[in-house]
C-alpha cells in the first residue's frame, strides 16, 4: 500500500469517526452546562428549607458576640460585640442582674468618681483625647429604684464613645440593651484583644451557661 493510500485511508477513518464523536462531545458539554447552571441556582436561590426562621439581626450580621458573665461581681453579665474593624461595643447582657431587679431602671450615670465619661470628646482619625482604660475600669452606674450596678469596660483599650442617650432615655437599657441601649464603644489593641478574648465566652457557651438554649 502506497503512502498516498495510507493517507487517504487515515483521512477516511478520521472523517468516519468525527460524526460519531461530535454527538458525544456535545452531550458532555450540555451536561457540564446543566451542572454549572444547577450550582449557580443553588448559590442564587438556596433551598428554602435551609433558611433560618427569621433573618439575622444587624448585630448577628456585623459583629461576633462575646460575653463576660459575673464580671467582677455575681450577676453582672455583660456583652462585648466585636466588629471586623476591631471596635468593641460593650453593654448589659439580657441576663444582667439589673433586669431581674424588682425596681425599674431609673438612671444611667456616667459620672464615675471625679470623671464624667459623657463629657469625653474624641476627635480625628487618631482618636485624639481618647482615654485608655483597663478591663475592670468603671464606665457608668445603672440605677434602679432599689439598687445600683457598676458597668465596666470588660476590654482593655481606648474609650471612643459612651452612649449619652441613656442619660435622658435610661429605658433603652430595658427595651433594647443590645442595640440602642449599648453602653460604650472601645478600641483595644490587637494584642490586648487576644488576651481578653480568652477570658470571654462565645454566644453558644454563654447560652449553655445560663441555660438559654
Can you give the mean pLDDT?
A: 82
Radius of gyration: 31 Å
> What portion of residues belong to β-strands?
15-25%
The spatial strand order of the largest sheet comes to 7-10-11-3-2-1-12
How many helices? The count is: 7
Main beta sheet: strand number and arrangement?
A: 7 strands, antiparallel
Number of strands: 12
How helical, in percent, are the residues?
Answer: 25-40%
Structural class: alpha+beta
Gross morphology: elongated
Q: In sequence order, what are the helices and strands, one letter per element?
A: HHEEEHEEEEEEEHHEHEH
Report low-confidence residues grouped into runs of 5 or more: 5-14
Alpha carbon gap, first and last residue: 85 Å
Could you describe the 3D structure shown?
By secondary structure, the chain is of the alpha+beta class. 35% of the residues lie in helices and 25% in strands. It is built from seven helices and twelve strands.
Features:
213 residues; alpha+beta; seven-stranded antiparallel beta sheet; 12 strands; 35% helix
